[in-house]
Amino acid sequence: NTWGYTPPGDKYEINHDLIGYTELETSSLVLDATWDLGHGVVTAIAGYREVEYNSSTDFDGTPFTIFHFNDNKEEQDQTSIEVRYSSTFSDRFNFVVGVNRFDQDYSIGERRNFFISLNAATYSETEHKTTGIFGEANVSVTDSLMLTVGGRWTKEEKKIDIGVLGSCELDFSSCTNNASNEKDWSDFSPKVAATYHFSDDTMAYASWTRGFASGVFNARAATLDAVGPTDPESVDSFELGFKTSFLDGRGLLNVAYFMADYEDLILFVNNPCDDCGASLINFNAGEAEISGFEAEMQFQVTDNLRLDGSIGTVDPEFTNIKYFDANADGVVDGKDNELASSWDFQKVTELSYSVAATYEFEIAGSSSMLARVAYSWRDDYMTDLYNKPWLQQESFGLLDASLTYTSSNEKIRVSVYGKNLSDEEYFDYAADVGTLDSARWGGAPRTFGVRVAYTY
Q: Where are the beta strands (DSSP E) in 65-144?
């Protein structure tokens, strides 16, 4: 009940005073070139992309102007290039080395309209540059044992110019409360792995990799203190796996156990805000550990029919809260550790599985038809960091099907598909808007389509 107004009971019935919209335009170009030098192969991949996004959203869900995002815009353009050399001159030793570069610029213009008369706007421009040098070598110690070592050196540079919420003109032409900040980070991430072949059909492997994510600026900050950046995040990942084929290759089975140990884990949270609606905060929470098991199986029942299945479990846990006031008492201490360790990670499903059947057959002129039916299921999960029960997504399953025609020369492909055929209701994202309850963005409903592709 808001100002005497009672929202309709039907979730598909609305009474808004702002007609929302979403417009997304994307253009991209990719160039992939390969040169065989005899002793090795040089591959170059270059890409360019432009994105323009415009939207309006009525967050309060009432016929009153309480909390609107009206006529917001985002623009992004990026370029990337990677050049790598992979050797082919030895059965016992091979390697790949390369360099890459990534540049992007993006801007966010956000308007918020509160309580009929108050309008506020924020505008930011961010530059992001990444340079990487990488390599990996594989050495066959024996006919059965192969060792792998590799690494990547990365340098990232980020710069932000931002006028925080309430300091910008509504047309984003100028801002009075500006902040400019820039930061760069460099890191070396190593990898070590071992693979052992018990036979031509069965092998096991173990690997350790250290990963790196640079610090994050908050391009939608409501205050100068929230601009950042955060500290970088690091993760040590371990994996043990086993792969085998059986019945003359008709059956395949892959199983793996993994564990990831995070330091300075970067998280974000939308905190309700009396004078801004919701405030996005980026921060380093502390240490966390994620472990899990996954298995996938494939079986060729006949020459035409194949069955696929997979299952995965994930067990995430905060192990040491360093910078996160989880209980909002103004102090980061052991109480925050105790509380946060009981929370589920946002958008992490502890159990998921999928099954599929594919049937392929020839038709006139050596063309082919492929029919596929697939079902995937996800356990319930939390969509927010604080585990608010009203933002929990219950478990759900999706049923998809497709029929694909491929021409005899494999140049023409036409697919007719249906997704979420059971019309399952679920949401991809949810946000708490304080006293205005919450907003949920529904997942795609039952959808049918046709996809046409031509290869030349």
A: 67-87, 93-114, 118-140
Q: Tell me the residue range of the domain where 88 lies.
A: 21-317+345-454
Residue 1 has pLDDT above 60, yes or no: no
pLDDT above 90 covers a percentage of the chain that reads 55
Residue 266's domain is classified under what CATH number? 2.40.170.20
63-101: pLDDT as tens digits? 887 778 888 899 999 999 999 999 977 888 999 999 999
Which pair of structure tokens corresponds to residue 122? 């924020």
Number of domains in the chain: 1
Residue 239 domain flag:
yes
Using CB atoms within 10 Å of the CB of residue 247, give its burial: 0 to 12 exposed, 13 to 18 middle, 19+ buried.
exposed
Determine contact, residues 102/80, Cβ cutoff 8 Å.
Answer: yes
Name the residue among 44, 31, 144, 46 with its Cα closest to residue 86. Answer: 44
CA 121 vs CA 16, 21, 71, 113, 439: distances in Å: 21, 19, 11, 9, 21
| Residue 323 pLDDT greater than 80, yes or no | no
Rounded to whole angstroms, how far apart are CA atoms 86 and 399? 41
Is there a domain that residue 25 lies in?
A: yes
- Please indicate, yes or no, if residue 361 is contained in any of the structural domains: yes
340 within domain boundaries: no
Written as six digits, the tokens of 87 are: 């050797």
Q: Average pLDDT over the chain, rounded to whole? A: 88
Structure tokens at 216: 């994050």
pLDDT tens sequence across 169-216: 777 777 777 888 999 999 999 999 999 999 999 999 999 999 999 999
Mean pLDDT, residues 393-411 taken together: 93
